Protein: diguanylate cyclase
Organism: Psychrosphaera aquimarina
Amino acid sequence: MINSLSQELQYILLQALNKTDDSIAIFDQYDEIAYCNLSFANLFGFETVDMIVGKSFSQIISNSYYNKTGVNIETNDIEAWLHTANMKRRSTSHRSFEIDTKDGSWFLITEQLVDEYLFLYATNITASKIQQFELLKTQKQLASLAATDSLTGIYNRRHFYLVANNELIRCQRKNLSASIMILDIDHFKLVNDNYGHSCGDNVLKSFTDRINKELRSYDIFARIGGEEFAVLLPDANKENALDIAERCRKAISDSPFIIDGVNVAVTTSIGMYTYESDADGLEQIMKLADKNLYIAKVSGRNKICS
Ligand SMILES: Nc1nc2c(ncn2[C@@H]2O[C@H](COP(=O)(O)OP(=O)(O)OP(=O)(O)O)[C@@H](O)[C@H]2O)c(=O)[nH]1
């Protein structure tokens, strides 16, 4: 086939190989570079083609590694890295993978064995990689928006049921107790009526902050309704949960919120239920905690019923 290329076409081909931004190299049977274009030399941190031709794969990788140039090689043990890479090279007739470089570019590498020669082709995919990262970032942001309550920043009802359900199942599997608290701000309508809706919003935010301070890092806290909040307390028996609930109740009732210089005193009623060993699901446990919340409300508010 090569023989059928006229000298003129061979010349055109070499010109094209030197003009393209894609990096191209041919390694010989000793894994030394028999040919490469300028882009390939640059990819491995060499300024000219002459500086790289004749070098082995291990030499060009070591050059990148020790001079911190060209291809990004993340390892503390370059010898082990090279050993693994050399095992993979030429293990199949064709393979492709992605690499990144010290300047933040990304390349798709394709290797093709032709007899004992290894033909390497690297395409710059930085633009599509950046798009891919942006998309992932947006997906994460969307997932976070879908999971959180926009006013307080804690989980919303839907996400609470998802996360708390998994956690409850984990507790049940490990024979750990778990408790649910449902907190409802007392007479919250009066806060809105007396001080305005925006003040009410600030009370909800400050309420969330105060409760958060009383919880353990692994408790699952969510706003499940207007002025209603739920907490799953993993690995908390009734006694532990009552301690936490009492701390929360006092954190709200002990001092008023100061909103725009105005003292706004509120209290919270708490319905609690502790799962011990039965096989109840989250829905059932929430219902039982809600019943206890109702009892706390009708029996005077600012109290815990369990
Ligand atoms: N500011 C503000 N108010 C809200 C929000 N969501 C719900 N509310 C208000 O919360 C109030 C809840 O009132 P009710 O259900 O009557 O309960 P309550 O006044 O707290 O009385 P009890 O629960 O019986 O102690 C209503 O006035 C709602 O408008 C919100 O996001 N912001």
